[in-house]
Amino acid sequence: MSTLVKNLETVRSRITQAAKRAGRDPEEVTLVAISKTHPAEMIREAVEAGQELFGESRVQEALIKIPSLPGRLRWHFIGHLQSNKVRKVIPSFELIHGVDSTALARDIDRIAAEMGLHPRVLLEVNVSGEGSKHGFSPEELEASLDELLVLPRVQIEGFMTMAPLAPEAEASRPYFAALRTLRDRLAEKTGIPLDTLSMGMSGDYEVAVEEGATLVRVGSAIFGGR
Ligand SMILES: *Cc1c(COP(=O)(O)O)cnc(C)c1O
Questions:
Q1: Rounded to two decimals, what is the model's pTM?
Q2: From the CB of 158, is ligand 1 less than 6 Å away?
Q3: Gap between the Cα atoms of 136 and 123, Å rounded
Q4: Ligand 1 mean position to 141 CA, how many Å?
């Protein structure tokens, strides 16, 4: 078995174990294999091992790789999306993880109307308040959510976050727990389920699953270093 296939199996079984520890159904958690910077051949190897959902963060790179791979694969956009790339991104990706401002959400909505599409998105929340991170602060999110939820084209399915870089996975737990608590409160307040929580990367995906992630974005633990 190749290293990549072994890695994939390890990540899958750790997700399952983490879900069970938290009393969750492992089926609630979906692995997004983050293939950015890695060539199509490596993605093909993961596909042969049963992985069909991938995440990419660079538009140009993704739009070269996607057409060279089987059409049944599903793609999520996980990077910082610039308004001038929206037209290229929304037809190729089934979910955009990081909508990080009201202006971007409005641009996506307008362009989707022109294109006849209904893009699914997650709003990125900067739970830690780190200045280097994109996303809505929890306060901004709460203040803007009503006007975002009425955008006719954009379908807001939940939230995404990144924990600050830390050597210990446990350091991410309070941020993941805070996002879940915020989601629970806003879902109650708006009456919209906001089911999807995208949180956890190679270093902290097990903690994220324990704290309620429904999507984990794992790159280097599967594909190796970039
Ligand atoms: C690159 C990236 C990941 C995956 O990171 P790894 O540490 O390699 O698992 C997850 N989320 C986002 C937003 C990324 O840009």
A1: 0.97
A2: no
A3: 8
A4: 23
